């Protein structure tokens, strides 16, 4: 993740490690976790910012689980992406989905 400091308008270029998947069981009350078949979450999208804090461009890494493939989307360009490249990016926001729920499966129904 990249952090912008408001006082100087500069980005902090520190790369922060984040998981592709993780289990939230220890953070969810039992009465809540019992309602779901899984407490495992998988990274669905990784939004990145490239360039200076007051400019630059955004791109998105998107996982299409039905194709078991990662893609990079930037403007009108879509390219396949190797999974190991996800955690090397200047990540801005990560979006996770519960493992027993798939956005692309729900969209095709």
What count of helical segments does DSSP give? Answer: 2
Structural class: mainly beta
Low-confidence segments, ≥5 residues, pLDDT <50? 1-5
Rg (CA only): 16 Å
Largest sheet: 6 strands, antiparallel
What does this structure look like?
Helix content is 9%, strand content 43%. It contains two helices and eight strands. The radius of gyration is 16 Å and the shape is globular. It starts with a strand and ends with a helix.
Summarize it.
With 109 residues, the protein is mainly beta. The protein is 9% helix and 43% strand.
Spell out the blueprint of helices and strands.
Layout: E1 3-5, E2 10-12, E3 21-23, H1 30-33, E4 40-50, E5 57-64, E6 69-74, E7 77-81, E8 91-98, H2 103-108
What features would you highlight for this structure?
single chain, 109 residues, mainly beta, 6-stranded antiparallel beta sheet, two-stranded antiparallel ribbon, 8 strands, globular, disordered N terminus
């Amino acid at each position: 993740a990249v952090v912008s400091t408001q006082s100087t308008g500069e980005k902090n270029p520190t790369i922060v490690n984040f998981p592709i998947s993780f289990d939230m069981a220890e953070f969810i009350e039992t009465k809540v976790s019992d309602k779901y078949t899984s407490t495992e979450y998988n990274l669905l999208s990784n939004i990145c910012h490239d360039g200076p804090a007051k400019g630059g461009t955004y791109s998105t890494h998107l996982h299409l689980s039905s194709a078991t493939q990662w893609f990079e989307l930037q403007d009108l360009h879509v390219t396949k992406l190797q999974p190991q490249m996800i955690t090397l990016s200047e990540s801005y926001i990560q979006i996770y989905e519960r493992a027993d729920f798939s956005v692309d499966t729900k969209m095709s129904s």
